[in-house]
Design brief:
Number of domains: 3
Number of helices: 12
Largest sheet: 5 strands, mixed
CATH topology of the largest domain: VC0802-like
Strand content: 15-25%
Order of helices and strands: HHEHHHEEHEEHEHEEEHHHHEEE
Helix content: 25-40%
Strand order of the largest sheet: 5-9-8-6-7
Number of strands: 12
Shape: elongated
Length: about 425
């Protein structure tokens, strides 16, 4: 083997020799690569024919781009959370978009009911008297609602900066608290909810920057309106806080700031953490803070419609069981009613339809019967030695003089004597005695 190395690539080019990149032609020759019919190379989209796959076109037949159903609620750029009064919602993980869609549709129906004057195109629909025209007007309204250029005058979606949390701005004259309370009352009355992905739904009456001074100014306004009553009576209240992705304010600092504003009202309001009439809720997120005064905070399960519907369904089930028991008792005579109540009390019925210790007592009776039945059958059976139905004592009394009983149970009497014959115990009645 020679120690001399061949000429370099540049020297070979200068001398007119072959290039070092032997397969350069196959790398750069043509654009249709990957097919068996031409070009070498491995292309993804050209399998077997040499022609490229056409680009995906999501546009409908009319050539216009697809419309987002929630596009009318989105602006560019999206507003941040807690920058305006609205509704703060906690959702199931990775279901924020679904929660937005179902809640927006639900809020639109509630707003049509509570604020009919804000319905877009409502006057045109009322003027039409024919059903066909009503259908056309409704169809026109639906098409306008999907138009990206006409934005909603009721609700506005905010950016997604937190996991499992969405925020919807509520534009005036709509009230966030009135809308949310209507949702809770419907869940309680019907014992069901139409919201599958939403958990807690908290109305926010006012927002400000997360500083003690600005929080104090906001609390002075929110507390004054929230604690207003017809007779200026004192109210029992509590303060609750939620902090997300922020360390601007401490929890006790926020509580003391708001409580100071409640004290300045001079109405004799007192703190009651167990049974408050009103709850002041503070939502802190990054550099913003939201505040609202809520009623029936514990009754509405911290404003969770799913929990409200579940509790209402259980209450209806218990009430139906109680009504059934009372109707059965009322159909009986007074003496039978007293007897049935006494039996229910002995059996452990508490009056709510739920038996107390009934299953335990039934189990004990079943176990006892398993042990008592064989013994009773043994006593009442007819053995080979002459024991008759009625037990051992009856057998001994009915036995004749001189009769032998083999392996008799029980104690020996005065009229009997025992003896062992072939390893067996025999009892013989004495003659003449």
């Amino acid at each position: 083997m020679s120690d001399k190395s061949g000429p370099s690539g540049e020297k070979r080019k200068a001398q007119g020799g072959p290039s070092a990149q032997k397969h350069k032609f196959y790398k750069f020759q043509g654009q249709n690569r990957g097919g068996r019919g031409g070009g070498g190379g491995r292309g993804r989209g050209d399998r077997g024919g040499g022609s490229r796959r056409p680009p995906r076109d999501d546009r409908p037949d009319d050539g216009k781009p697809k419309l987002n159903p929630l596009g009318k609620y989105r602006s560019n750029p999206l507003p941040d959370i807690l920058t305006a009064p609205g509704i703060c919602v906690t959702t199931i993980m990775n279901k924020e978009r679904s929660a937005e869609a179902e809640l927006i549709n639900y809020l639109e129906r509630i707003a049509d009911e509570l604020y009919p004057e804000t319905i877009e195109g409502g006057e045109d629909v009322e003027d039409e008297g024919v059903d066909e025209l009503d259908f056309e007007a409704q169809l026109k309204k639906d098409l306008e609602s999907m138009d990206q250029e006409s934005k909603s005058k009721r609700f506005q979606l905010c950016s997604h900066d937190m996991i499992c949390v969405i925020y919807i701005n509520v534009l005036p004259p709509l009230s966030p608290y009135k809308l949310v309370r209507h949702i809770m009352e419907q869940a309680e009355s019907s014992a069901r909810t139409q919201l599958k992905w939403c958990k807690r739904i908290i109305p926010i009456d006012g927002t400000t920057k997360a500083t003690v001074k600005q929080l104090s100014e906001l609390a002075a306004t929110i507390v004054k309106d929230g604690f207003a009553t017809d007779n200026d009576r004192p109210i029992k209240y509590a303060i609750d806080t939620n902090t997300r992705q922020s360390d601007r304010l401490e929890r006790m600092s926020m509580i003391h700031t708001v409580a100071e504003q409640v004290t300045l009202l001079d109405k004799g309001h007192s703190v009651d953490l167990k049974n408050p009439e009103k709850t002041i809720l503070l939502e802190l997120y990054k550099n913003s803070i939201g505040m609202s005064v809520l009623e029936d905070y514990e009754r509405f399960k911290k404003y969770n419609p799913s929990s409200i519907a579940s509790a209402a369904a259980q209450a209806k089930g218990k009430s139906s069981n109680t009504e059934g028991l009372e109707s059965n008792r009322s159909s009986k005579k007074p003496d039978e009613q007293d007897q049935s109540r006494t039996q229910d009390k002995e059996q452990g019925f508490t009056g709510t339809g739920n038996p107390k210790h009934v299953y335990r007592e039934r189990r004990a009776e079943a176990i006892a019967s398993q042990y008592t039945q064989p013994q009773a059958q043994a006593n009442t059976a007819m053995p080979s030695g002459g024991v008759v139905a009625g037990g051992v004592e009856n057998g001994e009394k009915d036995a004749e003089i001189g009769e032998i009983l083999e392996n008799p149970p029980g104690d020996i009497g005065e009229d009997w004597e025992e003896r062992i014959v072939d390893g067996k115990v025999e009892r013989v009645r004495k003659d003449g005695q």
